[in-house]
Amino acid sequence: MTEALTARRRVDALDATQAAVRRLATGVAVLTCGGPDTVEGVTVSTLVLASMRPPMVSVALREDSRGLKALLAHDGFVVNGLAAGQTVLARHFASKRRERGLAQLPVETWAGLSSHGVPRLTGAIAWLECDIVRSTAVGDHRIVFAEVLCGSRRGGPALVTVAGELRPCPPAG
């Protein structure tokens, strides 16, 4: 077998693996950090529960991402779990050309500040206020671990991503 054929098979296997992973549905959230004048946000679909006692979450972000740099420049952040109708917000905070500060979006988009002064998004189905505990490099990403200090929720369907598409998820019964 030639080296070119072996390399092509590795690429095909990697492509098939990536396609399979993308078929898994995951929730969509926007992580916000900073204060009103400097608020940054980043859309993620990699947020997961890492521990119940103490309550902790983890999130994976690309090593070279603006969102990771913003998170690591602050001690904490707010998880804004997006509702099914918040696709526009998910796309806004996924854009590399987004601005900083509250002025990047209409005033009604913001739901006030967390107890640490971090802006929250209106209409989110859940908010978690988190303090970063540690981060570790894994491949081309960095996993950030954060303790959940407090949280609140409201009803309604969540926004999820599956096969690269944003979709509404019916609320749990």
Describe what you observe in this structure.
The protein is of the alpha+beta class. 20% of the residues lie in helices and 42% in strands. β2 (29-33) and β3 (40-44) form a beta hairpin. The mean pLDDT is 89.
Q: Helix amount, in percent?
A: 10-25%
Could you say which overall geometry the principal axes of the C-alpha atoms support? globular
Strand content: 35-45%
Average pLDDT works out at 89
Distance between the termini: 54 Å
The radius of gyration over CA amounts to: 17 Å
Short description:
The protein is α+β, with helices and mostly antiparallel strands and 173 residues long. The protein is 20% helix and 42% strand. The chain is built from 3 helices and 12 strands.
Annotation keywords:
173 residues, alpha+beta, seven-stranded antiparallel β-sheet, three-stranded antiparallel β-sheet
